[in-house]
Every structure is written in structure tokens, then in C-alpha cells.
Amino acid sequence: MTDLYKLTISEAAKKLKTGEITSLDLTQSCLDRIAEVEPKIQAFITICNQSAISQAKESDRRRTENKPLSDLDGVPFAAKDLFCTKGVLTTAASKILNDFVPDFESTVTKKLLDAGCVLLGKTNLDQFAMGSSTETSAYKTTKNPWDLARVPGGSSGGSAAAVAADECIFSLGTDTGGSIRQPASLCSVVGLKPTYGRVSRYGVIAMASSLDTIGPITKTVEDAAIVMNVIAGIDDKDSTTLPNKTPNYKKSLAGDISGLKIGVPKEFFGQGMNSEVEKIVQSAIDFYRRNGAEIVEVSLPHVKYALSVYYIIMPAEVASNLARFDGIRYGYSKIKNQKSAIKNLEDVYISSRTEGFGDEAKRRIILGNYVLSSGYYDAYYKKAQQVRTLVKKDFEKAFEKVDILITPVSPTAAFKIGEKTDDPMQMYLSDIHTVPINPAGVPAISIPAGFTLDNLPVGIQIIGPHLAEESIFKVANAFQQATDFHQRKPKI
Prior knowledge:
The protein is of the alpha/beta class. Helices cover 38% and strands 12% of the residues. The chain has helices at 9-18, 23-41, 49-64, 107-114, 157-164, 181-187, 221-231, 275-290, 306-321, 334-337, 345-356, 359-372, 377-401, 424-428, 437-440, 469-482, and strands at residues 44-47, 76-80, 118-123, 170-175, 190-193, 213-218, 261-265, 294-298, 404-408, 444-451, 457-463. Helix 7 packs antiparallel against helix 16 and helix 9 packs across helix 13 (377-401).
């Protein structure tokens, strides 16, 4: 059974439980798949061959003793290289952390490891999660499995590409302005951004703390629900996690969608939208209409300001969070490399950060310090926070009228590598449909919805009210049960 890497979480868990396969079989199949396609895809920064095999053997031992840690015991996964993993290199795809090996584990990876999951490796990303194409990584450019000349999206491009290429059974990503959903759409996989505070951020290298969210990237909606059952919940190490009881998300998959009110925000359609993408999204909306849902046009009048708000608040928080990377305690340091050139403490900061950070990180640090500076704080940062509240209220008002919102994920399918690297504004506009969700703090999922004439994937975004992941799963699963887009595989 050499193609076990094709299994979903649900399928793998059942086969492991019945003894039809072992975790070692499954893990080795994924590692063999990585060895086969990784030279083309470049999804991983670090591959944990030896430790993965060891973890798989331990899982099999527990199974033979009839003491599995959970239904997921023995299922292999990959984590975006933003998650601190004890004893495993964690770089954030930046040279400034090129030798950082944490001595602690992030809450989410610990929960998965405690459930018996096997860590295959750490996936590539845009440096410090800053980007929409995984091209700002200091180490490599990940390719889209559907077209190796195109980007997989970002910043969780490595995580999405790894799942799409069957290099792992599932992966973890982070989403600050669309970094799970946009690559999920571009790679034809499922990507969930949960409600802010639903999943702990402890041990995940921070980009913009009031926007960062942790979520799964999977092959099916069912798999996303299964992972959420493990990773969601309150955490004493993260004061922003919510005290609300975590439901059994898998039970929310079934259910009739007839009578459901689905809102279609008019601001998400129009100028800048690729015609093929719009046609695919409208086709998905028609599916829900045919199956008894009531389709209602709604308006989110302040959402047009969301991208501007995001690119003020996010850089401000980036400047604050990245201040800790100073070349002294950990990571890249000019002191270690060229002591003679260092005259004072300022030299340490300037030289280490200049050489350690990439262009995009520097751009956002400079912008963030500018909007927080004296004389500009009120004009930019304070004003952006006020408009953020208006965006949030738009969503709250919309959800008084409808149960769910459906929108495009990205205005286009995957673009070519290098196409937007010299035009930051065009790159930022790639997230125009995903960014508004993060300031609002609501949950959203991207699911495969079709393909362009060039066989490039397109996803739809399903958005729910605060803590309405169950509703999102039900609506998304109904579409997936009636279509086969998620079952189609790229020819690598």
C-alpha cells in the first residue's frame, strides 16, 4: 500500500483503528511522497525524518497495547514554520531565526502531539507570515502543485501546497489577513480561520497579535472539524482564548441547509474580479439556492476601508512584535559573525536586523513605526482602530439578517511566480476579500468550488458570526458532499 499518503484524516483514523494499516506504514508513505515531489514543490523548510519514524513506532506500540491516545493517534501532519516546536528548527522563514531551536512547544502542536499525531516537518511561508505568495521566504519559493510556474498563495503557502500535493495528511497554518484561506483557495484544499480566540496562539511567532489566528488546512471539511476538536479551547498561556465551551465540531457536519438565509455582500463583487472566478462563485451560490437556501443581497458599507485599516494596524503590531529580534538573545547575530565591525549596542541592532530581515519585513516595520510615531498616531493608528470597529459592526448587522455570508476568497486564481513581487500594492490586493474577516474576528472557511479553463483552482469563502464554526462546517460540508472538486488531484 504505497499510496497511503492520499488518505484523509477520517480514512486514515479508521484504518489505523482497525489495524488495516500502521502509523509507520502511513508515515513512511508520506515521507516517500515528500522525497518524490518535494524537489518540485519546495513546501518544507525542515523535514523530520527520524523523529517522525520514531513517533510513528511509538504510536503503533500504543495501538498494539490497546492504549491509543486518541482517534488521531498515528496520523502524520505538517506545521507552518511559525509554530515553535521543541527540539525542531523554527525559522519563520527568516534568516534572523536561521538557527533557532525552541526549548518549548506551542499549545496547538502540543495538543496534536499529545493526541499521538506525528510531526513530519515544518512548512515554508512568507517571512514572518508577511506576504500572499510565499515568495518572501528567505529560503525558497514554494510552487503551486496545480501549476509549478505559479504561486501557492500565502503566507501559509507551504502548508497548503503540502496538503494539495499529498505530502502530509493535514497541516497547520496561521491567518492574519487571509493566510490560511487564500492559499487554500489557490491550491484546492480546505482552510479554516476560526473565531479569534477560539484556538491558542501560545508558542506561535507573532505577526499582528490582535489579528493572528490559528487553523487547520485539510483535504475535506470533515477533516477540518476533526482537527478543530483537538486544537480548539481555552489556554491559560494565552489570555485572549475564549472561555466558551468547545462543541464537538464533527457532529455539526450533518444538517439540512434548506431555509437557511445566506447573504451575498455586494461589495465583494465587481471591479478587479476575474470573470471566471466570479462565475464559479455564482455557481456555488446557485447550488445553495437550488437546495432550499434563501439568497439575500446584503451590504457591508465600511468593508471597502478594511484593507486600508489592516495595513495600518498590522504593521504597527508587526513593528512592536519584531522588536524582540535584536540579534542578542537568539537568532542571527552580527556579533557571532563579524565581531570587529561591532563598536556599540546600536551597531548590533542595526547590522543584525538589516541582514536578518527581508525586504517585506523591513517595509512593514518602517510603516508600523511611522503610524505609531508622535504626530501620526492619532491620524493613522487611532483612526484605523475606530474604522475597524465600524467594519466589525457591519458584520454584526449583516448577521442579524442572515445566517451565513458567501464571498469569493481571492479575486483571481493563482498568479505566476514573480508577477507581483515588484508591485507591493498589487500583492496586497490579493487579500482584499479575506482581510475584512480578521479585524471583525469572525470565522471563515475556504473550500474548493471549481476550476478555471486553465485548470487552476478557485475556492469560495463561507463566513459565519462569532463562534459559529458549527454553522460554517454544515454549510461547507453540504457543498462538498454534492461536488467532487476537493477530490481532484494535481498531476505532479
